[in-house]
UniProtKB/TrEMBL annotation:
<keyword id="KW-0677">Repeat</keyword>
<dbReference type="GO" id="GO:0045815">
    <property type="term" value="P:transcription initiation-coupled chromatin remodeling"/>
</dbReference>
<feature type="repeat" description="WD">
    <location>
        <begin position="95"/>
        <end position="130"/>
    </location>
</feature>
<dbReference type="InterPro" id="IPR001680">
    <property type="entry name" value="WD40_rpt"/>
</dbReference>
<dbReference type="GO" id="GO:0048188">
    <property type="term" value="C:Set1C/COMPASS complex"/>
</dbReference>
<keyword id="KW-0539">Nucleus</keyword>
<dbReference type="InterPro" id="IPR036322">
    <property type="entry name" value="WD40_repeat_dom_sf"/>
</dbReference>
<dbReference type="InterPro" id="IPR037867">
    <property type="entry name" value="Swd2/WDR82"/>
</dbReference>
<protein>
    <recommendedName>
        <fullName>WD40 repeat-containing protein</fullName>
    </recommendedName>
</protein>
<dbReference type="InterPro" id="IPR015943">
    <property type="entry name" value="WD40/YVTN_repeat-like_dom_sf"/>
</dbReference>
<comment type="similarity">
    <text>Belongs to the WD repeat SWD2 family.</text>
</comment>
<dbReference type="GO" id="GO:0003682">
    <property type="term" value="F:chromatin binding"/>
</dbReference>
<dbReference type="Pfam" id="PF00400">
    <property type="entry name" value="WD40"/>
</dbReference>
<keyword id="KW-0853">WD repeat</keyword>
<feature type="repeat" description="WD">
    <location>
        <begin position="8"/>
        <end position="49"/>
    </location>
</feature>
Amino acid sequence: MGIGKVFKDDNTAPINSMDFCGDGTLLITASDDESIHLYNINSGDSQKQLYSKKYGVDLIRFTHHNDAIICASKNQWDESLRYLSLHDNRYLRYFKGHRNKVVSLSMSPVNDTFMSGSLDDTIRLWDLRTNVCQGIIRRNGRPSLSYDPEGIILATAVSGNSIKLYDVRNFDKGPFSNFIVHHPQPVEWTGMKFSNDDGSVHVWRTLTGEEIAVWGGHHSKVGCVQWNPKLMMAASACSTLSFWIPSINES
């Protein structure tokens, strides 16, 4: 892979989160400079720029509509989640309930529900059609969570190297599976995602540090990486956003 295009001047602070839309044609980014940028993948251009000066913006995620997103606040006084229309930069709904910083957000791939995990030791289930919380899972520690591609299983991970799997339809009955990730030190999860392929999972052995590729080019710490769900490309970001595409070997 090689860098196909770089956007150097769009952000004045690190990009903290980004997401591809379901059909892979758009990428949305959120930055610590309180800006939201929308990029067209087919043309490789910046398409729209919005700001969230009052709340800040973090954990940005597309809904099932390319002109609407959900996101978390990034300030010291508000922990609400927001449903934002990109068409007219208008908040459609607020989701209040968390009492500490929201650190994980996952949109269901099949309907209008989504999950949020917070440092208040709760995971909450929401529905875009109402601001009333639909359910709560209580777990101690920093939670990371993800829906599976069918929207049936919810995976949660917290400190202690433990991953628990829930049936979304019966999450109130507790996890149906629990397993431990063996690692020499306790793990603090910062993100997790189901593999959306034929079921294979590639693992890098932490004890040997074996690697298959190194992508260089960023001038500071890379804070987030996303693969396009439809195209052979990826995006990575510090305060600079880079698109990665297969390089052509001319030899």
